[in-house]
Amino acid sequence: MSEELFHNVNLGWNQITLSRNELFLIIVLIGIFLHSLLWFQLLIYKIRIDLTFFFSLTYLLTDFMIMLAFIIQYIIRTNFQRSTHGFVCYFEAYFIVYIDIIETICLTFISICRYYEIVLNKNIYINYRKLILFISIILAILIIINMFIQNYFSWSIVLDEIGSSCSINNKNIYVIIFNEIIFFFIPIILCFYLNIQCLIYLKKRNCSKMNNNNYKLINRFLIFYIIWLILWGPFVFIEQFYTKFITNQIEFIVILLTTLDNTIDAILVSHLDQRFKIVWKKTYSLIKTKLKFKRTLKIHSII
């Protein structure tokens, strides 16, 4: 374990970091509300949850976990004493990085499954359901093992600077290259490649209702993925680098973008899966109907 982990004399942030995190807290609280509303809608409308919904829901859950983790971090950093510091530092440094990777994997799996369904005409959720769950669990464990090995051999250490949150410092250039290729570039390239192949396949096929629906589905996913890449991608990319190489201004902008992405994902996921779009539409229609009913009552009462 790194000696830097125990250099900080307290858990508090400096004034600049605290001010920035107060802004992030406001955005996160809005995100918590929107995400909670979406989960509530999924329950009250009794949306069927099966394996086809697994990766989309897991992606949505990771957003919620990141926002909840920030609130816990904020409470600890502004209230608790040093006795919790070792755990807090490792939690701050590794949890978000781990969830980032899980998010990337979820989007990649969605692309793979849709490619199998559209291009190869195989229902992967029925034919390979056990394999999907097995690979998901194995990958989640392998990511933890990878982090542990890199920390154990001091290829990456937890950096604790007074007044700031803890972060990972990758000291080995080969580790940085490995992490960037495996967890950033390969998933992104694979996602774009598979979705573009789906579009090419659908264009070559005769136009039908099913093909048209699939075409819209892929287009919506690509819109979602590009927005995710713009807002979330910079953080996933720079988190592997030594924080002193990143200026405070760049760090602030990058974290602001990721925080905004977490918040608006509750709405953007409508492009990820049709079921999210359905529940938002139902709620919108319900509100619209009630407002229309109230206006009608008001008009009648005036008359």
UniProtKB/TrEMBL annotation:
Domain G-protein coupled receptors family 1 profile: 20-269
Keywords, alphabetical: Membrane, Transmembrane, Transmembrane helix
Location relative to the cell: Membrane
SUPFAM superfamilies named among the record's database cross-references: Family A G protein-coupled receptor-like
TM stretches of this protein: 23-44, 51-76, 96-119, 131-153, 173-196, 217-238, 250-272
PROSITE patterns the UniProt entry points to: G_PROTEIN_RECEP_F1_2
Principal location listed in the UniProt entry: membrane
Protein name: G-protein coupled receptors family 1 profile domain-containing protein
